[in-house]
Fold this protein.
Amino acid sequence: MGYDLHITRALDWTQNVGREISAAEWLALVASDRELVADPSMSPLAVCYGAKAWFDWFEGNVFTSDPDRATVEKMFEIASRLNGIVQGDDFEIYETPLQWPRSDAQRPPA
């Protein structure tokens, strides 16, 4: 089981009613970003980013699991475009990609 990072507009990603990122907003962003490629085999609103990374939309938030530094940097770009924040599973808010404590070197081999 991985550790997820979320792009949300709420201070608590689990309590985002009234602060949701709409599916239409997500799809518009995906359509405007050549680095994101739709992957409906994963889920209807999932996208691939690079060779191994992915993002998905669920219940008004965008998320990924166990991202590497490049993916976290992309999350911040996406969050900015969606007027959101980057938040961990345990509700911690990240203000920069450098705050993400996990790096490629710390990840176990796949």
The chain has one domain: 4-100. Helices lie at 23-32, 69-81. Residues 105-110 have pLDDT under 50 and may be disordered. DSSP finds two helices and seven strands in the chain.
